[in-house]
Design a protein that fits this description.
Strand content: 25-35%
Strand order of the largest sheet: 1-2-3-5-4
Structural class: alpha/beta
Enzyme class: hydrolase
Keywords: Cell projection, Cytoplasmic vesicle, Disulfide bond, Hydrolase, Lipid degradation, Lipid metabolism, Secreted
Largest sheet: 5 strands, mixed
Order of helices and strands: EEHEHHEHEEEEEEEE
Pfam families: Lipase (PF00151), PLAT (PF01477)
Number of helices: 4
Subcellular location: Cell projection, Neuron projection; Secreted; Zymogen granule membrane
Distance between the termini: 30 Å
CATH superfamily of the largest domain: Alpha/Beta hydrolase fold, catalytic domain
CATH topology of the largest domain: Rossmann fold
Number of domains: 2
Shape: elongated
Helix content: 10-25%
CATH architecture of the largest domain: 3-Layer(aba) Sandwich
Pathway: Glycolipid metabolism; Glycerolipid metabolism; triacylglycerol degradation
């Protein structure tokens, strides 16, 4: 039994006979996309974990792409009617859009078991545990009975627009050079499954021998890494023409470590 952002108004905090609950079926999974408080945030979905697996994409409150200006959102690619509906309840309706995308990407939408979205953004919940990460959406039932905890909260990030699936990698870069310089470092990943765009790893003072780490939520499952492109730039013209390189770059997949 799948709950697509189950309703908060009139259901939050009510007895289990009234609202969705893990006792309603052998396996209950829930996608929370609009769980901010109804007052004052007009959140339509409930934040409470109520299933065997509760997924909180992007933290479960504010979905990427739902902050577009009203005109661009209403005059949507899907048409005036769907665009208007999305403008009124964009976060709430993301749940069914993620679900429909999950059918197309059976290996996508990995949910990482974690205490909170804030902790998910750190190293603590990466990579997936040895039993693996459940897939949010259509294929979540592959993990029926794999977790013994009463409630399992799972976190992940999604794209701003279709296709919503992203794949999480941890990229660690150690710089080489003779002097520090202000600028930024970008990395693009190439693999057997496809290539990513450039993702920024760090911006600020680039210090040779320092190591910088960043999570990349890539728009493609790159598979086996075949190449990593390292790019850096300094923010202003520097007459000393500094040189900067990468001594090492490590890429770790969230799915298998």
């Amino acid at each position: 039994l799948l709950g697509l952002d189950p309703a908060q108004p009139y259901f939050q905090g009510t007895p289990i006979e009234v609202r969705l609950d893990k006792t309603d079926a052998d396996f209950v999974d829930v996608i929370h996309t609009d769980s901010a408080p109804t007052i004052p945030n007009l959140g339509f979905g409930m934040p409470t974990a109520v299933g065997h697996l509760d997924f909180y994409p992007n933290g479960g409150k504010q979905m990427p792409g739902c902050g577009k200006n009203p005109i661009s959102q209403i005059v949507d690619l899907d048409g005036i009617w769907e665009g208007t509906r999305d403008f009124v309840a964009c976060n709430h309706l993301r749940s069914y859009k993620y679900y429909s995308d999950s059918i197309i990407y059976p290996d996508g939408f990995l949910g990482y078991p974690c205490a909170s979205y804030e902790v998910f953004e750190t190293d603590t919940c990466f990579p997936c545990p040895k039993e693996g990460c459940p897939n949010m959406g259509h294929y979540a039932d592959k993990f029926k009975g794999k977790f013994k905890n009463n409630f399992v909260k799972l976190y992940l990030n999604t794209g701003e627009a279709k296709d919503f699936a992203l794949w999480r990698y941890k990229v660690t870069v150690t710089l080489s050079g003779k002097s520090k310089v202000k600028g930024y470092v970008n990395v693009a990943l190439y693999g057997s499954g496809g290539n990513t765009r450039q993702h920024q790893i760090f911006e600020g003072t680039l210090q040779p021998d320092n190591t910088y780490t960043r999570f990349i939520d890539a728009e493609v499952d790159i598979g086996t890494v075949t190449k990593v492109k390292f790019l850096w730039n300094n923010n202003r013209i520097n007459p000393t023409l500094p040189k900067m390189g990468a001594a090492t770059i490590t890429v770790q997949s969230g799915e298998n470590g």
